[in-house]
Amino acid sequence: MTVTVRLEPMAREQYDAYRVTAEDSYATSIIASGALPEAEARTKAAQDFSHLLTEGFDTVDHHFWTAYDGDLEVGILWIKLSECSEGITAFGYDFEIREPLRRHGYGRAFMVAAERECRELGVVSIGLNVFGHNIAAQSLYEQMGFQVTGIQMSRKL
């Protein structure tokens, strides 16, 4: 069965609900990656969100969408647009499929919808970060044509 996803701009109320959990989710990913211990990861997450979203939902060049399959909310997308010599680029800060819906084809459909939305905005390339422990996302992104542009590694002693 092929699934399709449509993106709709996130309403402020949806953003408010998303924002409550997004910072914690980011901190949890930092911890799971082994990059920082919990207290430092939570501090970093709070600082990063504060730095990136200076005006919250209204921060210039940041766009938030909710992904739907029919009436079913399947995920969220947060990107930032930037101008460079090539044209408009997008950086995906959050591509997230709701946990119970993962591994059902929504990730691929979601990426197709995100690329379509970005093309309509004149975007020439999309970048993103994926944590090392998130092998499923890495695999999906590679299948979708994303290329590794850098690798950060560490080793516990």
Q: How is this structure best summarized?
A:
The chain is an alpha+beta fold. It is built from four helices and five strands, in the order βααβββαβα. Strands 1-2-3-4-5 form a five-stranded mixed sheet, sandwiched between helices.
Could you explain the architecture of this structure?
The chain is α+β, with helices and mostly antiparallel strands and 157 residues long. 39% of the residues lie in helices and 27% in strands. The chain is built from 4 helices and 5 strands, in the order E-H-H-E-E-E-H-E-H. It has a 5-stranded mixed β-sheet with strand order 1-2-3-4-5, sandwiched between helices. Strand 2 and strand 3 form a beta hairpin. The protein is globular and about 45 Å long. The chain starts with 5 loop residues before the first strand and ends in a 14-residue tail after the last helix. The mean pLDDT is 93.
Using brief descriptors, characterize the structure shown.
5 strands; single chain; 4 helices; five-stranded mixed sheet; 157 residues; alpha+beta
Fraction in beta strands: 25-35%
The general outline is: globular
Number of helical elements: 4
Reported for the largest beta sheet, the result is: 5 strands, mixed
Mean pLDDT metric: 93
Span of the ends, CA to CA: 47 Å
Q: Give the topology string: H per helix, E per strand.
A: EHHEEEHEH
Extract low-pLDDT stretches: none
What is the gyration radius calculated from CA atoms?
16 Å
The helix content is 25-40%
What is the structural class?
A: alpha+beta
Strand neighbour order, sheet with most strands: 1-2-3-4-5
The count of β-strands is: 5
